[in-house]
C-alpha cells in the first residue's frame, strides 16, 4: 500500500497507530510524494506485476488531503505506464472531505473506496475526532451520501475497540442500513510504549521481539476474548439472513480457508510479507504495521521495487511468522485457520510460559470453533457448485 501523504491526516483519532510516524522524519518534512517519486513508484509497481490486472492501494494518513488534481495526475501516469494492463485503484479515506467532485472522479475511474467508520455516532465519535477534538460522525455520513449519490463502490472499515466491542449487532445493523455491502472489522490492539520506545517520541510500543520486555495494552484496546464474542454474535445473524447479500471480510476469508482456497488475507497466511508499505518519500517497509527503521528495505529512488520485495531481508521477515510460532500454537486445532495471526500481536506467553502467543488467541479459538460446522456446510455447497447462501434455509430462526 502506498502512502503518498505519509502519516498526515485531518483527524486525530486517539487510537491511530500511524499518526506517530511523523516523528520518524525530520521536522519540517513535506509529507507529499514528489512527482519523480510518484512516477517512479507507478512505473515500477506496474512493471513488477506478473498479472494482467494491477491494483494500487492508496492510504495515509488521509490521501484526499492531496487534492483531486493529484489523483487525476496519478490516473494519467497509470495510463502512461499501463502497457495494456487493466489498472484498478483502491483508496482508504475517513470520508470527511468527500464531495461531488471527488465522487464523480471515483466513479469515472472506478475507484473502490474504503471508508473508516466505527458504527453509530456514540461509538464513532468516542475515538474518531478532528484536530480540534470535535466529533466527525456527521461529516463521515455526509461523505457516505456523496458516495451513494454517485454510485461509487465502497466498503467500510470498523475498528473494534473496548468502547464498541460489547455492541456487535448494533454496529452490524447500522453498517448494513448505511449501505455497506462489504464490511471489514479490525481489532484494536496497541500497547503502551516501553521506556526505550518512549525516548523516540512514539506513542505505542513496537512489535515485540524474542526476549523483549512487553508492556500492557492501552485502555481502548479490545479485550482479548471480546473480539471473538463480537464476531460470533454477528456471524450468527449473518448466517441466518445475509449470506450472499452482505459480505463480511472475516467470514469470506474463513470460507476460503474451509473450502481449501486459502485465506486471501495476510493475517491468516502461514507466512506473511506481502503487505508492504511505501512511504511518501519512497522508503519501503516490510509491513504497514512495521514502519520502524529496522524494517526498512530501502528506497525506490535508488533500489528497484522488485528487488526489495524479493530480498533476503523481506523473505526472512515473512517466513519468521511460521518459524516463531510457539508449541502451543503448533498443536492448536485451529492453527490451519489462524497460523498465529499477525506477528504484531504476539506479545503474550502460552500457558506453559513460552513467548509468542497472540493477544487475540482466545478470540480466534472461540470464533473458529464456533463457525466450523457452518463453514463445512457452506464449503460443501461450493463443492457441489451451489451457492453458500443455501445454508440460510437450514438455519433455525433467531
Biggest sheet strand line-up? 1-2-3-4-5-6
The chain-level mean pLDDT equals 94
What count of helical segments does DSSP give? 14
- Give the H and E element order: HEHEHEHHEHEHHEHEEEHHHHEEH
Low-pLDDT windows of residues:
none
The largest pleated sheet is described as: 6 strands, parallel
Distance between the termini: 40 Å
Throw out a few tags for this protein:
globular; 6-stranded parallel β-sheet; 11 strands; alpha/beta; 36% helix; 398 residues
Question: Could you explain how this protein is built, in words?
Answer:
Helices cover 36% and strands 12% of the residues. The protein is an alpha/beta fold and 398 residues long. A six-stranded parallel sheet has the order 1-2-3-4-5-6. The protein has a three-stranded antiparallel sheet with strand order 7-8-9. The protein has a two-stranded antiparallel ribbon with strand order 10-11. A hairpin with a 4-residue loop joins β7 (277-278) and β8. The mean pLDDT is 94.
How are the SSEs ordered, and which strands pair?
Layout: H1 35-48, E1 53-58, H2 68-81, E2 86-93, H3 100-108, E3 111-116, H4 121-124, H5 137-149, E4 154-160, H6 168-177, E5 182-187, H7 195-198, H8 226-241, E6 247-248, H9 249-258, E7 277-278, E8 283-285, E9 296-299, H10 305-309, H11 312-323, H12 327-330, H13 335-338, E10 348-349, E11 355-357, H14 361-383
